[in-house]
Amino acid sequence: MSNARLSICIATRNRGSFIGATLESIIWQATEQVEIVVLDGGSTDNTGEVVRKYQTGFPGLRYFPQNVNGGVDQDFAKAVDLAQGEYCWLFSDDDLLRPGAIQAVLDAIAGQYGLIIANAEVRDADLSKVLEPQRLLLDADRIYKSNEGHQLLADIGSYLTFIGCVIIKRQLWYARDRERYFGSLFVHVGVIFQSPLPEDTLVIAKPLISIRYGNAMWLDRYFEIWMFKWPELIWSFTHIPDGVKLKLSLKEPWRRPLNLFFHRAKGTYTAGTYRKWLKPRLNSFWGRVKSQSIAYLPGRIANLLAAFYFSTFCRRTGTRLELLDLRNSPFFYLKVGKFAASRGRKAVTALSRELRSDSL
């Protein structure tokens, strides 16, 4: 595949139930200019069997199983190392490409942008319900000049928490520091914004991806990611104005009781979370009292109040996803018995059916 223009790089682990659909959505529209690189970080399920089945029908699919899991950042970096294309699409292992997505990106590559961002629609975990028809609310493609990196981050920084939207020139990826961001869980954001980009960026308005919402592998790390990992990364960009960074995250969002309350409502903030993450950091007696009190607040009460707030007073983009998070919480006020204990794919599917009849 030395003639590949586009390498679709997928880092995966234990996704045998989903990666087949992902590969199928890519392969049927792939051309001779496209290769697929799958880096398997030590799967113990049937991921390898599924990938090899698709490999027999598409020689441009290259599969690299690893003995150990290096983590999402290292695995994506290694996938790019193994790629041969001029551009690398850092694609997720459970989402789908929409029809025409590859051709749209190949057309965009002709513009020789350093970075291309693909818009996406958001669906529930079984893909039966569209939660957001466009993650980025754009009417037309948008070009950001190389000196407009601050505006790029302000406009689409939150969307970039989804790695599957990033198509980057491989030469640009290699020219920038990657290892500094290993362990951040957002190595792609570190690569893009560590310093001004040397070339223009294209943001494609038409959704090219269908995201499975609520199917992420890191849900058990939700509090750590959004209270620590993400803000620490954003605030490490010393050349970015504070006003831009504040649009994406407070520097220490865990100090804000309202943020703790919403995490409590979602079931991601508990007494154990408080002891592990906040107690060692809080010097103020009243700060500890407030944070600990929220951790012990009855979860069903928090969930009910948060759902009322988002459905009644908050109409911003993303509200539907916040409500789905609350409905997927173990504290969701309508859950009883075994249904309350089920937080897997069946529960998300059931919640998405409920959303069909709601006017959110």
Topology, number of strands? 10
Strand content of the residues, in percent? Answer: 15-25%
Query: Which whole number gives the mean pLDDT?
Result: 91
Helix count equals 16
CATH topology of the largest domain: Spore Coat Polysaccharide Biosynthesis Protein SpsA, Chain A
CATH architecture of the largest domain: Alpha-Beta Complex
SSE string, helices as H and strands as E = EHEHEHEEHEEEHEHHEHHHHHHHHH
CATH top-level class of the largest domain: Alpha Beta
The structure class reads: alpha/beta
The value of Rg in angstroms is 21 Å
CATH homology superfamily name of the largest domain: Spore Coat Polysaccharide Biosynthesis Protein SpsA, Chain A
Low-confidence stretches: 336-360
Helix content: 40-55%
**Anisotropy-based shape:** globular
User: What is the number of independent domains?
Assistant: 2
Head-to-tail CA distance between termini: 47 Å
Main sheet overview: 10 strands, mixed
